[in-house]
Design goal:
Shape: globular
Mean pLDDT: 96
CATH topology of the largest domain: Rossmann fold
Largest sheet: 6 strands, parallel
Helix content: 25-40%
CATH class of the largest domain: Alpha Beta
């Protein structure tokens, strides 16, 4: 649960306004939002807000906490069961003129790197590539002449030496800036979905927790290190080994390839 689910929601609502509709995420009576919805859906003409349940043109969609289409929790509440029939649609953001102006202050074609995770989540350890790997990746990319940018936010515990650090009071500001990047590199999650929403190439470190076929975006380079996506909520040896199977050199090559492809 977080920004990622709401970005997914924006993709599900895409085009509604052109049909004269607004999508209401809820149970058919009440719009059900998380704390992240307001920021992600800001300025979005396709989405109905709480209080607009009875507005003309509202079209209900059962996509909310406990009703995500891509997975369900198993009976023991120990792992996620992935829906392999689901395919992810890219979301979208509607930036304000102020947000566009903030982004315009940044020279384009940098690489965004995100070595941090939502540390409070029990699954974070299963999606962690490791501080040393990120540090070495950053060193290699800088040595190759790439300009790295890292956003500093409430979850930041790791800083990549040599990266330009940008303070972002709001998630939307980071994504507006990220539009100007060449490549995003990080794990599966909200930033990955945000990168897809703004059409940004990505090198995504999935590991063995979630399947790219279900929750990933097909035009990203999705690296697993495993043939299984276990979905374990608790710390998992399988997930740890899958991440260990992903080498810095493999990721570095993929980032370089994507950066070169973007430049042509």
């Amino acid at each position: 649960m977080g920004y990622g689910d709401e970005i997914i929601g924006s993709g599900l609502a895409r085009g509604a306004a052109a049909r004269g509709k607004k999508i209401a995420f809820g149970d058919g009576r009440k719009i059900i939002w998380t704390q992240w919805c307001k920021e992600v859906y800001e300025n979005n003409p396709n989405i109905a807000w709480p209080g607009q349940e009875k507005a003309p043109g509202v079209e209900w969609m059962e996509f909310h906490v406990g009703r995500r289409h891509y997975s369900t929790l198993d009976a023991a509440k120990g792992r996620w069961i992935w829906n392999y029939n689901y395919r992810m649609a890219a979301g979208e953001f509607f930036f304000s003129e102020k947000e566009k102006a903030i982004a315009a202050n940044h020279r384009s074609d940098f690489i965004v790197i995100e070595p941090n995770l939502p540390w409070w989540k029990p699954v974070a350890v299963n999606k962690d590539w490791g501080e040393a790997n990120y540090a070495e990746l950053g060193r290699q990319l800088i040595e190759q002449g790439y300009r790295l940018l890292q956003f500093h936010h409430a979850n930041t515990k790791r800083i990549i030496t040599g990266a330009q650090i940008i303070e972002v009071p709001r998630f939307r500001q980071a994504i507006a800036i990220m539009q100007r990047a060449a490549v995003y590199v990080g794990v599966e999650g909200g930033m990955m979905h945000a990168a897809a929403a703004v059409g940004l190439r990505g090198v995504i470190l999935f590991g063995g927790w979630s399947p790219p076929l279900v929750v990933g975006h097909s035009w990203h380079v999705n690296i697993t290190g495993s043939n299984e996506a276990c979905g374990s909520i608790k710390p998992c040896d399988h997930c740890r080994q899958a991440m260990a199977n992903i080498s810095v050199e493999q990721v570095s090559r993929a980032v370089s390839h994507e950066a070169v492809a973007k430049s042509h």
